[in-house]
Design goal:
Blueprint (H helix, E strand, L loop, with lengths): L1 E5 L5 E5 L6 H7 L19 E4 L4 H4 L7 H5 L10 E3 L12 E4 L6
Parallel strand pairs: 1-5
Antiparallel strand pairs: 1-2, 3-4, 3-5
Bound molecules: FE2/S2 (inorganic) cluster.
The site of FE2/S2 (inorganic) cluster (FES) has 13 residues, from loops.
Length: 107
């Protein structure tokens, strides 16, 4: 399954990841900078914040309402309605070709 990460300066990196892994792992395993994932991918740190490309928003969807992710994402900087935590985006075949935009800095 392919995922393309677009960094804040416009650099695009397309990586491949196995089904069932997360978008955070796709970045991590391929040394894509910009996703820290300090908590190890358990939805507790918000440093894996990404913006889902508008064209993909329908398929990825927003964080589950009232879930851990929607609580936590408030702590990430510069969030918008396309914000998701990459560790909570599970890579499934329907998301092949997914485009994610990386925020400038993660804190
Ligand atoms: Fe910590 Fe996603 S890696 S919230």
């Amino acid at each position: 399954i392919k995922v393309t990460f677009v960094s804040a300066d416009g650099t695009r990196r397309t990586v491949e990841i196995d089904e069932g892994l997360s978008a955070r792992e796709a970045a991590l395993f391929n040394s894509v900078p910009g996703i820290d994932g300090d908590c190890g991918g358990v939805c507790a740190c918000a440093t894996c914040h990404v913006h889902v490309d508008l064209a993909w928003m329908d398929r990825v969807g927003p964080p589950e309402e009232g879930g851990m992710e929607s609580d936590l994402i408030q702590f990430a900087e510069g969030t918008t309605e396309t914000s998701r935590l990459a560790c909570q985006i599970s890579m499934v075949p329907e998301l092949d070709g997914l485009v994610l935009h990386l925020p400038e800095l993660q804190h």
